[in-house]
Protein: Ig-like domain-containing protein
Amino acid sequence: CIVRGGTSGTARFPSAEWWSGSTPVFPGEDSNLAETVKNATTSISFLSFSTLRTSHGGEYTCRGRVLLVTAEVIAASSPVDVVVRLPAPTVTVSVSSGALNEGTSLTLTCTATLPPWVDTDVNVTINWTADISNE
Structure:
């Protein structure tokens, strides 16, 4: 995000803020805000995520502020929509231990897992089909 003020003494000291929807974004455990240029006329700011998570999805804007002699001017960038795609779950089926002899019981367990970076509520539905025949 690049915010420029004026070259005269009337519009100086620009700053940039990142927003996710209506919430300001602050540096955190897996997000970073960096300003590469910060002087009386220009501010360049970057927002980055070291580990992208599903909760990072949403609409982001950069808001620039410029101080005037008697006021402050704020303008927002066009929004950018960040979509974090979910992977397919890893599905495993296991068989209960013990001998599988005719007439004994059998338990099958199905487990569906998602990577740890999926940090929003996700409903996984498991459907079973069986073909039981004596052929």
